[in-house]
Predict the 3D structure of the following.
Amino acid sequence: MHVPDWKGPLAEAFDQATDYLAGLPDRPVGPEATAEELHKEFGGPLPEQPHDPRLVVRELAAAAERGLLPSGSGRFFGFVFGGAIPAALAADWLTVAWDQNAGLYAAAPAAAVVEKVAGEWLAELFGLPPTVTAGFVTGAQMANFTALAAARHEVLRRFGWDVERAGLTGAPRIQVLVGAERHDTIDRAVRFLGLGTDNLVPVPVDDQGRMRSDALGAVLAEEAGPAIVCAQVGNVNTGAIDPVGEICDVAHAAGAWVHVDGAFGLWAAVSPRLRPLLAGVERADSWATDAHKWLNVPYDSGLVFCAHPEAHRGAMTVRAGYLIHDDAGERDPLDHNPEFSRRARGFAVYAAIRSLGRTGIVDLVERSCALARRFAERLGADDRVEVLNDVVLNQALVRFLADDDVTRRVVQAVQDEGTCWMSGTTWQGRAAMRISVSNWSTDESDVDRSVDAILGCLTASS
Ligand SMILES: *Cc1c(COP(=O)(O)O)cnc(C)c1O
């Protein structure tokens, strides 16, 4: 058998990776290269001949270098990205080296068991019923998709319809009730599932973007029939949390399924201080969250939980003659997620939980929230800045000189200046800057340096 040189390319990757990571704190937080430059770096004719693997890695790193967005920096506050804690990153490397196909227990015994264990730990951390089933997917988009597939299965089953067999043609109409400020991945999941965006029923929200549970009752009462209610824990702009307990009361009384999109916000359930904001979340029927956001596990890592194992498996399961299914009781991951072959992403989640422990996760979550409040307090102390949200989680939303143009210019100037990176948004029709504190390495000095940079850009832009 041919014995390849593993050490050459892997040592090169190790050196390149550790140089990159060590340089993050001092690096400007933004990509340096233009698209044109990147096309030039990577472009060229299709390679005809083999090339030394070590050089492939070295040249790849050199070509990518100026086109990387340093989102692992402690001063990256864009979107809700999060970085990667060392244990999770290293476990992800091993995952790739082991290259397990995590679809089946028979194909990846350790991966299957790690997912079972990590899924149970996560349910305990979030305070969900111990009987929930868990699926390891690519992100909250696919977690929403998987959960809504289980919901579709169950709400139609209750109306005597087997959607897996009969499809949706001729099925009772399913209403999907959503807050007016839901995440767009809900709409996309509804499209993927053939539920149709015409069947989305928006429920009014309050000034922070929270679904109004009183309004939900009125909307539900208008039509009998299968219904799914999508609550949100953590609005991407404001961090606002829907009153999930009240939503469960109203929705369950009407026989509806409650799904919770908690891509980042569900992590607040881990903190005893923040938990009251999510009161009743354990009574929902399904939950979506991400490990790659607030837990700081590398991409891609999403999680879905379901309180109805039959519905979860009913929507996802697959049996094929050439596969080896473990009907003796070990969990086959592919019964819980839409992928067939896939990487063993449970190892990195497991490593993150082992590395941080419950107290470390609570600390990460509470620290991020405190740093978001620090942003809001320090920026809000300047009378040119308006803080637009109640900073309940890790999101702060600000606006400059009450002016859309100035606000957009400041967002652009901050991105160009390089001390920190924030993204812009539109909130209630007005331009705003979003500040998301999601990185484990961010500390107070990062916030203070970033505030100074933002105020400097504001002075220069107005
Ligand atoms: C980020 C986010 C999503 C999508 O998550 P991905 O991991 O990017 O698929 C869905 N819902 C909410 C509330 C989010 O913040």
Remarks:
- The mean pLDDT is 96.
- Residues 90-352 form a domain with the Aspartate Aminotransferase; domain 2 fold (CATH 3.40.640.10).
